[in-house]
Amino acid sequence: MPRKNMKKILVTGATGQIGSELTIELRNRYGKDNVIAAGHKRKPGGKLLDSGPFEHIDVTEKENIAKIVKKYDIDTIYHLAAVLSAVGEENPQLAWRVNMDGLYNILEVAREHGLAKVFWPSSIAVFGLKAPRVNTPQDAVLIPRTVYGVTKVAGELLCNYYYSRFGLDVRSVRYPGVISSETPPGGGTTDYAVEMFYEAIKKKHYVCFVKEDTVLPMMYMPDCMKAAIDLMEADALKINHHTSYNVTAMSFSAGELTAEIKKYIPDFKCEYKPDFRQRIADSWPMSIDDSVARKEWGWRPSYDLASMTKDMIEKLSKRFAESKL
Question: Which residues contact 244 (CB under 8 A, 6 or more apart)?
Answer without folding.
Answer: 122, 126, 152, 156, 159, 172, 173, 174
